[in-house]
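Example 9 (inverse folding). The structure is encoded as follows.
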């Protein structure tokens, strides 16, 4: 009988025996594979601890040293930049006051002269002759006056006795009066001749250095002709320009530091003397006049300078960059690094130095604190930080 036709539900022994041959090897193989998998998982090494630390560091905020600031007391200066030129404190163009022959010229450019030193003589010989003539004329008139006065005295005595007419007395008196007037005029002419002779001998009005010489001995000069120029460089006057927006902060007496083109490495100090009350026409700048000592004469007129006026200065100030200060709800705070984490620290701010970008921190932080000096994203109280190596 065909097994497929068996409807009794009983498997023939021969068929059941065939299925048993396949079932047991398959079960054994399944158990072997499962047991091997369990053994393989149990023998896998654990994840290393260093990998866990690296993951934590990747999650921390990484900061570079240039983004950090160590708080220290410091001297703060607020500066106004200026540029300009050097001019002598005193300078004079010496012109001839009388006309004539330039007889002597005693100095050359670069010579140092003292106040009152003779520089040029112009027509002194002719002027001396004129002076001598005026003096002689005056002396002669004085002699004539003495004679006229004696005649007048005798005429008065005769008139008193009735021996001389009134007309004779009047004539004698008139002659005396005329001589007195003539002598007064001649004395004025003598004084003028003396003054001309004095002006013909040109002397230095102050101590300084001869800058230019425009006349030579033997040259004919006219009144008003410039012959020499003298400058005093013991103190120099520096005219600089500053931005008009800073003019309200510039005051007389404020210190200034200047660098001179061509004299790199040297810093010259001076003070503000004057401040122009109006801006330069067509510019947004204002002229400031500075005074600078120059005892060795190293500075020259016309030199170009750059510098800075100290308009505000404070010592031992706790100041931080303005970029390190954050604001929230009208309060200010900074981010301080404490034990590898950020700590939000409220601060009371004070003065601001615009040119340096620093802000005074009156409270909240102290010397030695390390703060974040830049505006960075991700800054939060308690956030872990890692400082990268330079």
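The amino acid assigned to each position is listed next.
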């Amino acid at each position: 009988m065909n097994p497929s036709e068996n409807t009794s539900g009983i498997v023939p022994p021969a068929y059941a025996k065939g299925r048993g041959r396949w079932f047991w090897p398959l079960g054994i193989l399944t158990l072997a594979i499962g047991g091997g998998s369990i053994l393989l998982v149990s023998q896998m090494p654990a994840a290393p601890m260093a990998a866990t630390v690296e993951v934590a560091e990747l999650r921390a905020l990484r900061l570079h040293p240039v983004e950090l600031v160590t708080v220290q007391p410091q001297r703060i200066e607020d500066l106004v930049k200026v540029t300009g030129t050097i001019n002598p404190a005193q300078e004079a163009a010496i012109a001839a006051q009388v006309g004539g022959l330039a007889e002597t010229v005693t100095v050359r450019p670069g010579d140092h002269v003292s106040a009152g030193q003779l520089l040029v003589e112009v027509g002194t010989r002719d002027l001396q002759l004129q002076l001598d003539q005026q003096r002689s004329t005056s002396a002669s008139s004085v002699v004539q006056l003495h004679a006229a006065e004696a005649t007048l005295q005798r005429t008065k005595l005769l008139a008193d006795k009735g021996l001389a007419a009134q007309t004779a007395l009047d004539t004698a008196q008139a002659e005396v009066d005329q001589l007195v007037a003539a002598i007064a005029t001649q004395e004025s002419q003598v004084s003028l001749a003396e003054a001309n002779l004095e002006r013909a001998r040109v002397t230095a009005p102050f101590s300084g250095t001869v800058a230019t010489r425009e006349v030579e001995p033997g040259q004919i000069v006219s009144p008003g002709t410039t012959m020499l120029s003298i400058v005093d460089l013991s103190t120099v006057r520096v005219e600089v320009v500053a931005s008009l927006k800073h003019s309200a902060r510039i005051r007389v007496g404020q210190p200034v530091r200047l660098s001179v083109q061509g004299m790199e490495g040297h810093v010259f100090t001076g003070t503000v003397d004057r401040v122009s009350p109006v801006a330069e026409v067509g510019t947004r700048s204002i002229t400031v006049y500075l005074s600078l000592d120059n005892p060795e004469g190293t500075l020259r007129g016309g030199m170009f300078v750059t510098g800075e006026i100290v308009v505000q200065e404070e010592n031992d100030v706790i100041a931080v960059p303005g970029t390190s200060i954050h604001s929230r709800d009208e309060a200010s705070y900074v981010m301080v690094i404490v034990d590898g984490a950020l700590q939000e620290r409220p601060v009371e701010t004070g003065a601001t130095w615009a040119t340096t970008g620093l802000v005074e921190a009156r409270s909240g932080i102290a010397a030695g604190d390390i703060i974040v000096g830049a505006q960075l994203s991700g800054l939060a109280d308690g956030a872990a930080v890692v400082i990268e190596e330079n």
